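Structure ticket #2291
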Amino acid sequence: MTLDDLIALALTAGREIMAVRAAGIDAQTKADGSLVTIADQRAEAIIEARLKELAPDIPMLGEEAVAAGRVADCSGRFFCVDPLDGTRGFAKGGDEFTVNIALIEDGEPNIGVVYAPATGELYAGEPGKSLSGKCHPQTAQIIEPVKPIATRLTPPPQPRVVASDFSGRNEQTGQFIRSVGGVITHASSSIKFCRIAEGAADLYPRFGNVSEWDAAAGHAILKAAGGDIMYLDGSPLRYGGKNGDFLIRGFVAYSGEVTKSAAIAALRMT
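Resolution: structure written out below.
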């Protein structure tokens, strides 16, 4: 199982999502109140079946599997998958959603792929290599050569703080941005991690709960590019359901040691 295998799988899942979208979207509400569509379910089924072929001994933790009560053993190596991150926007007809596939080893993200089917943005990473590319939204064929990316280790005088249009509008986020003397830039779903990985942003604070499958793939790409993610107390973000619910209760993604130090100082004032 290679990074190229996971890239190909993300593209296949993306094609299925776009096919479902073209046929009409059927959104339902899960037990926890979140939305799910046929696209989520079909994409996860494709990913799970292919991962069993590629790495039969590695379990998969998937968003829809967990919702159905199938929780993988996350004590060692496991795949962490969100087949459609940004379901709410997808169901409304928006383009800001991604396929996320990550391999976790001993709590750390090791390999990750984030693919945005509607825009064709593709990001991937493994130790020592972080990449970006562009695909055709309808065919998922790569139309721009995949190229290396890296974080900007020396941030500009005003750090660029990425946040979503929805969750990034809360007061804590605003206070954090003011504390670091930053300027806000918006991005959606897991693309926020990728913006830091490619040097287009410097920090991404999140004050609130997100699931591990929302962050794992982007985290792997960011680590490969030179950045990382920490909990709000400054400790490294780890995976495997240490809280028993696979929730991350707030974090800050950063481009390097300079922005990490600035973030820690800002968190003390937030």
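Closing remark: The helical segments are 3-23, 38-54, 63-67, 87-91, 171-180, 191-197, 212-225, 257-269.
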